[in-house]
Amino acid sequence: MRTESSRAYCLVFDDTVLAPGYHLHHHAATGEGSIVGGIAEPFLSPNDKPVLRKDDMAKLHLFWCLKRIDSNSSLWSVRATPRTHLQVNARAMLRDLGGLLQLCVQKNGTPPAVVPCDSHPTHQMSIRCMLCASPSPAETFWRDCRQPQSLKLKFFPFNALHWKTHPLFCTVDGAWSCTASMLEGPRPVPLAAYLGKDMQSDAEAAWMLNGGSRAETSWLSYGTTMMQFLMSMVLAPWHAASAMSRDQILQCALTSYYLLLLLCHRAFTENGVHWERTCFARQTLHTMVQLSANAVVRLVHWPDGLPYFPEKTDEHAIEGWFGSMKNGHRGNCNIKDGILGVDRLHLQQYKRKRTDPEPRFVQRISLHDLQQVSEQCLATASRFYAAASVDTEAQAATAALETWWCAEGQELVCGEASSNLLVEDPDTESDNEEQPAVQNEAAEPSESVDADASEVFLSLEFQKQVKQDMQNLMQPPKDSCAESLSAETLLVPAESAALVPVDGDNIAEPFAKCRMPADILKDSGLAQFDNASADEQGEMAAVKRLARLAQHCREFIDFVRLKEGFLSKAQVKGAHRELNQQQLLEHWLAEARQLMETNSQRSSRFAAWATFSQRCTDMACASDGQGSIGLSSIKQFRPPNLRSADGCQQYQLLAVREHSLAPPVLGIVTAVFRGGKKKGTTAGSRLAAEALDAAVARKVHVACLQPAGDGKQTFSCSVMSPALNILAQSDSMLLEVPPAEYVVEDTANKLTVRLSKHALNAFLQLRKGEVPNMLPENKDSKDAKPFFTAESFQGSARHRNIGKALQVWMESLGTEIQISVILPVRATVLSLARGSYQTRMYERVWGVRLVDETGRLQVKGRPDWRAFVERAPGFLVGRWTAGKKGSKGPGFGGWFMEQLRFYMPTKASDKSRLLHWFSEINRCAAKELPAVVAPG
To answer: Taking the alpha carbons of 911, 916, 921, 924 in that order, is the dihedral positive or negative?
Structure first.
């Protein structure tokens, strides 16, 4: 690599999947053979007669590679570690990384400049350690590391870890944020989704962030553009760094960082611990924050004389190296094929003639200038956030962010969430997830195909309409097709984009076309937006501001997409290729496979949900004598990208509820996700591009409708409307409005739905009635009195489900059943219902014992904190007595809810603090609640 005695190299690591099995590998150099493929103890001698067990086979292989920081042309594997999913441990990963870095120091004198990796949960401890967000261990390489002084930026606790006097940088994989975002809306989805495959490549992820993929006249187009703009700002300091100046990189990184914090703060304020429902997933948020933080830290500590190529120091290089390693093998590549593939790559790289690229350098920014730019970026982010929100002021948003950051924001963004636990792979439904999905798909339909699945393969003549619909779907808008690529959209040459510092308006010509967020606000006429006048308030005013911003944001999105090189210029402008016959057949094979999976899957959950849906139908949708039913059971979930024969969008209208205590609402389906065959959670769900049977759907994204217009039959929603993420087979998914009972009008500002009288009457009847819950029925549980103790809500063990216990607790309050909470300190009893005392510690809930003698919860189910948080304030204010009997205690009830939001268990907090909180209630009860005394 020609990097002796220098830091111009990276240590990149990632794991890949090789088919498990034992194989005899022959060493050409020594002439000896060895058995490879297992992770059990080494074979000592033939007399031991070892047993080759399936459980001992390796399913993951962690590769550690070295490469230059200015080129992706070659990687050199220095270590490969076979392991199972249960062996993936964050502390072990940090220890192994320290051992490899120590070897680099011993061999080369200095550690590598950059350590790229992906955002796997087990890598988070290592990433936070190198970003100074958590302390480093006192062993091997890490004992010589130190954390420098803070950069003194607002809401920015990150910095670069130093080994002696050398800064150590890390990089996370931006594809994590790409694949997990931008999945909603009536627009074409990546081709892999139509073929029934999982979107894994960076090109497929980039398609979701491409401005040409959005529907120009759809009600979600402006919101889609805003999200694409935010993702482009996060990725621009990496993928488009060669065409940006130092100050532009810094402005993008800091502005996107503060925008992410503002979005997370709003989601947490509105939804509490369920903030992920209306924001990015926790892991996606951490990835995006770390990408922006790494870009800022590099510009502060980057060594002089070291080439600056951010686009060459990410984890993408090892992903392409894995593809080259497995290239040429038929079927699934096993560990023996992987060893031979690595040897072949090393031999090719050794013989290849290497040419050093032209160096590119960057000048470090001073702390004084950094703090000034940070203040400007925070003000820009707050104003941009206010302009894209409803009735929000920039200064108020900044002040609220500061309060939230000190309370729980910093712990949420930078916390050590589950870093010391054994973390399994988030997507382990298939051991061959990195292999081309078509290999597995082609094997399944060749087995026995039942009558239901065979209906898919009738004739090509029958499928002509399907092909025509799919081609209409993949065609770009007419205005995008007619556009020709202008010279302004062409990439600037790399040699003319050398990174040099710029001052003020004296920006070099290659960087002039990269408009920053402050420039976009100025171009949109929103640089002085303060939400003061009446015309600037309201939902429609916010949508109009989004329309003004979207036009200029699209230019920045195209700039980043073109520069990163994953998509062609035609794709960025909206051009698509028509589907060929092979792709159409793959689409039909995927449909047939899903039908077979429907027939063979576990049907207990689906049967319970079908019974629940039928009860809702019988309660709300009686026929009016004319054979017209306003609401019906859900047979299929249809994503909004489907079109009818005349080219119109086909929206699906559902009756849903946010949780088991919320009233039903109407909503439009914005995305549908199919589930894995063996996965019990939503981690294995994938975006669906066709109508899914309800039995194979995993979750659905729904945009809520609100009454609009003078008539009661009209509902509407916009990009500002609340959205719900609902499990397909849960009691939150109620009924469907038949397509014949409503008419949809889709405009750029909003989506309007007009119901028929039959559908409106059925929906109103559903809201008036008491919607049942999917709870187990037991005749013996009618007289059982739910009883909860402090031990019921501790949750110190790993498998305790506190959320479900509290949900049942609050639901039972509506039935006026006596409930008591026994506090462990001084045996004080606080009566929440009737003021009576109970001494028993354990009781049955719904016929099932809640806790055993050790305090372990026995109630199983998903926690629903929102049902508890929304109902608890009114109950506490009305029921908790203060002073004499009959008076209210709003002060104590408010304190109770503030403490509850902090002490409730989350991934970013310690669950054992809940017991301390109960002790605090016991301590304050004597003063706040004089009527409640401890028994003698």
So the answer is: negative
What pLDDT, in 10s, does the model give residues 478-509?
443 333 333 222 222 333 333 333 333 333 33
Query: What does the alpha-carbon distance between residue 170 and residue 310 come to, in Å, rounded to a whole number?
Result: 11
Kindly tell me the burial class for residue 349, based on how many C-beta atoms sit within 10 Å of its own C-beta (0-12, 13-18, 19 or more).
middle
Could you tell me which residues are beta bridge partners of residue 831?
820
Helix (H, G, I), strand (E, B), or coil: what is residue 773? coil
Q: Are 735 and 631 in contact (CB under 8 A)?
A: yes
- Are the beta carbons of 722 and 223 closer than 8 angstroms? no
- Report for 95-99, 182-186, 826-830, 899-903: range of highest mean pLDDT: 95-99
Q: How many CB atoms lie under 10 A from the CB of residue 759?
A: 26
Of 125, 267, 271, 287, nearest in space to 205 by CA: 287
Indicate the pLDDT class of residue 283, thresholds 50, 70 and 90. confident
Domain locations in the chain as residue ranges: 1-174+302-357, 601-768, 779-928
**Out of 110-119, 146-155, 211-220, 267-276, which region has the weakest mean confidence (pLDDT)?**
211-220
CA of 537: how far to CAs of 391, 392, 393, 531, 751, in Å?
A: 5, 9, 10, 6, 20
- Residue 428 CA to residue 132 CA, distance in Å, equals 31
* Residue 743: count of CB within 10 angstroms of its CB: 13
Q: Which residues of 3-22 are buried (b: 16+ CB within 10 A; e: fewer)?
A: beebbbbbbbbbbbbbbbbb
Beta strand segments in 84-232, E: 114-116, 145-146, 161-163, 166-171
Q: What are the two backbone dihedrals, phi and then psi, of residue 161, each rounded to the nearest 5 degrees?
A: -70, 140
